[in-house]
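Supplementary notes for students who missed Thursday's class. We covered one full example, reproduced here. Read the sequence, then the structure, then the short commentary at the end.
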Amino acid sequence: MLNVYRLDSEEKSKDYEGLLSRFEEREPYFSSRYMNIFSGGFENLIYFLFESDETGATILMPGYLKPIVIGGERTSYFDFITPYGYTGPLFSPNISVSDIMEFWKCVDQWYADNNVVTEFVRFNLLGNEAHYSGNVFPTMLNIKGKILDEENQWRDFDYKVRKNVNKAKREGLTSRIYFREIKDEEILEFHRIYIQTMERTNANASFSYSFEQFKTFITQNNNAAICTVYFEQTPISSELLLISKDSIFSFLGGTNEEYFHKRPNDFLKIEALNWARNNEKKYYVLGGGYGFEDGIFKYKKSFFPNDVVNYFTGRKIVNNDAYNQLVEKANNFRLAKGLEKLETNDTSFFPLYNKLN
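Structure (token representation):
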């Protein structure tokens, strides 16, 4: 049986978090606090809850049910997109293939009954794209590093990583990992470095999270940690880590450019990795780059050269007629602005009707 609930307030998030506690894998990207602060807030946020009558298995999938607006005009249609990061459906341990297939069948029917035209799913790295009822795309490469014993791990690093870490140690860099009961001053150290980095790199304004936002997220979650690197007691590099049962995830961070020559970035990654190993984690997920095998991706790969995996997204057109009408409407808007007409076979952007610039 499938039920759909709104997740549009702090009050409703309490029920959602209660459901989330049923699952062994407490994936941090499914947290309502994560979604509220880092993935668009509570507005338009819903979640699907599927409970199998046969096996008692449970599937939970949050996402944004957004009204489709073209050229400032709201249509009668909606699209659905899962939160930023590693999300999609979350399965209870006793899930079966038939349960998964029934879940997607029920979701698709709900879409059809509620004027939902398209679905875009960001899957996690645990294989939850299997048996998806839409089209699965290998969207980009990610680094999901296997955590080995210290000797073999060190041997697997690229030579440049080992060289940089040795230099950082000679420079006298130290680190601290803050996990649970994190103090305001420890969050503030991270926030100052993070904001300076966002300003230096001209990052999109949407990444300028406030100290209060970070404090709220960190203090209300047991799945967040901060790794900070120091030079003579001065914090020079810091990163917010997300924690699951088996993994740590590199999330947001920055470095004071005055100390780049001391190689704090490489040192931070190794210190976080050592902490993860000591806490019996299996993976250190560094993610991907901004483009296909760009410089950021290659930097991450230097830590785990053999641990490249595909990051999958899912695309689904529920109502083809409505989709084509919306693309035509978007084309009229684009042509009026002097932009090129959209081609329906263009797979570089989905859904096409949202490509208005």
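Commentary. The two ends are 41 Å apart (CA to CA). The chain has a mean pLDDT of 94. If anything here is unclear, bring it to office hours.
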